[in-house]
Amino acid sequence: MGFVIMAIVTTIVFFILKIFLPTLWALLFALLFYEAWYRFNYYSGTTGLVKANMFAYFTARRKGLSHEEALEWVIYTRFPGSVKEQELIKQLFWKLSDTETEEDDLKLLVYIIFSYENGVPPTTEWKIRIMNIIDTVYDKMTSRFGIE
């Protein structure tokens, strides 16, 4: 559905640009508009999602919640209107969790939520890219919140 909306809006942009520019230039700028919009959506769907989940976790920890409570808070804030989705994510997390550190727990939970919302990354390269984003955001959040 999102692709259809993006295609329709890009077509409208093309026709508006065509009023002011030659057809080839209008097409080029419309395609650049589409590419920028696509990248923005991709960024929002990856880095934005990771940041939001980690922000919820670190805010909860700063307010005094335990590690487990903060993880549950992340799940709740991500799916506030759906107890069914909250329970599903909790079950997936506890089933897959064999980590030994709080850091690894949080990163696993964020990855599970990402995979649930966007589908499991189709290739190893995608998974590595997502995990690198999670690692980078984690490092920034720990320094921002003063947590080691």
Structural account:
The chain has helices at residues 2-20, 23-62, 67-78, 83-96, 102-118, 124-145. It is mostly helical and 148 residues long. The protein has a domain at 44-145. The longest helix has 40 residues, at 23-62. It is built from 6 helices and no strands.
| Biggest β-sheet strands, sense, barrel | none
Radius of gyration: 20 Å
Class by alpha and beta content: mainly alpha
Topology as H/E string? HHHHHH
Which helices and strands occur, and which strands form pairs?
Elements: H1 2-20, H2 23-62, H3 67-78, H4 83-96, H5 102-118, H6 124-145
Helix pairs in contact: 1-2, 2-3, 2-5, 2-6, 3-4, 3-5, 4-5, 5-6
Descriptive key words:
6 helices, single chain, 148 residues, 0% strand
Question: Outline of this structure?
Answer:
With 148 residues, the protein is mainly α. It is 84% helix and 0% strand.
